[in-house]
Amino acid sequence: MAWIYFAISAYLLFAISAVIDKFLVSKVVRHPVAYAFYIGITGPFSLLLAPFGLKSLSLPDFFIAIISGVCLVLAIYYYFVAVQKTTVSRILPIQGGLTPLFTLFLALVLLGERLDAIQYIAFVFLVCGAVLISFKKESGQWHPVALKYVVLSSLLFALSAAFSKYIFDVSNYVSGMVWTRLGFFVTAMAFLASPQNRRYIFQAPKEAKTKNVAIYYSSRFLGTVGGFLQNFAVSIGSVTIVNALQGTQFIFLLVLTSFLSLRFPKVLRENISAAILSQKIAAIVLVTVGLVLLTL
Which residues make Cβ contacts (< 8 Å) with residue 202, sequence separation at least 6? Predict the structure, then answer.
């Protein structure tokens, strides 16, 4: 069950990256297409793994690998489009619930992956914990376009994960990482086809300060390493459970933001009432129970 620990380590890095992005993304990358583009162009760097076991794929499998990478970059793009329409607090609970559910269905249909009884119970605890810990009551109404995009983003994340798992199974981890990441680059180049997108993309570095850019790419590095760990977990474990473990990322986020709000209240302020604290503790208990069940 070592893959569980790889997945949790990945979500820790994702949480650190998310905290950095909370302060910097709006200052460095102001539009979703620019954010997705600068993630997409990192795809060719996966070729550095080629000497460590790259294998060729059949033509159908090659296209599946490319589609997996395309789906992931588009999922990130539509996630930030949804965030622009509403708030992260409204997006996360839906994505935290839908992505594992879509993955559960797709892994069953496309991969024939079936969980045992204990894993299904753990899945329920993990997903419920993820939704509960990220839920935040806010005034105002949902923007219907935001809901559409977060559902689409969740489906694309799940499709990418399922297709990646398939490629890992028919080849190996290195081949899966290299070929799927070429899909990143394909999507990034497609973004450049629109003149308006090009303006957003090329304007982003000009609007950012040097210090912000350096920290931003440090965040991207953490996210990249997290992605490698998450995909390694998928390659040797259950793609359904790996995605369900996203609740651990929200726990790490809670710990990090709480610490920062106490240590640097002028930089980050988190309002934690007794009701909110009870909610977070209940969510942590749910996720912990799920983790304990997985290790039985």
Answer: none
Close Cβ partners of 75 (under 8 Å, ≥ 6 residues apart): 153, 154, 156, 157, 160
Whose CA is closest to 164, among 155, 151, 154, 173? 173
Concatenated DSSP letters of 66-114: HHHHHHHHHHHHHHHHHHHHS-HHHHHHHHHHHHHHHHHHHIIIII---
Rounded to whole angstroms, how far apart are CA atoms 69 and 158? 12
Residues 78 and 156: beta-carbon distance below 8 Å: yes
Question: In sequence order, what E strands does the chain have?
Answer: none
Tokens of 122: 């753990």
pLDDT tens-digit series, residues 172-229: 999 999 999 999 999 999 999 999 999 988 887 666 666 666 777 787 788 889 999 9
Rounded to an integer, what distance in angstroms lies between the CA atom of residue 36 and that of residue 188? 7
Q: How far is the CA of 197 from the CAs of 33, 185, 233, 258, in angstroms?
A: 7, 15, 34, 37
Distance CA 124, CA 294 (A): 12
Query: pLDDT (tens digit, 9 = 90+) per residue, 15-39?
Result: 888 777 666 555 555 688 888 898 8
Nearest to 183 by CA among 83, 53, 44: 44
